[in-house]
Amino acid sequence: MVTGKRIAMLRKEKGWGQKNLASLLKVSVSTVSNYEQGVHLPDLPMLCRLTELFGVSADYLLGITDCRRNMREPEECMVGEYSFKDFDDIVVSMDKSKRNSLVQYAKYLLQNPISEK
Question: Which residue among 34, 45, 86, 88 is the one 20 to 30 A from 76 at the CA level?
C-alpha cells in the first residue's frame, strides 16, 4: 500500500490529476487509480518510468527507504574529492549519538549558512 500512497503523493506534489499522470504514462486513468489504491502494483518497466518521471528511487516508491534521492551515481562528487559514497561510509561508521549530532549540525548549517569571503 506504501507504493500507491507515494505515487498519489508525488502526483499531487506535481499538481497533476490522475488523468495527467495516466497520459504521461500512456495508461488508463483506472490503472493509475488502481496503483494509488493498492489494487495493483506497477510492473518493473512501469516502476522505472515512475522513478524517472518523479525523480525518485525505486526503493523510495516501494517503501524500502524514506530517502527520495536516486543514488545511481554514488561516485558523484559532493564537494572537492568527496563523493556520496565517501559521506555514506563516514556516517555508517558513526554511532547513533554522533549521527544525531551530525544531523543537528547539518540543520544548523542550513539555517546559518557560512559566508565565503
Answer: 45
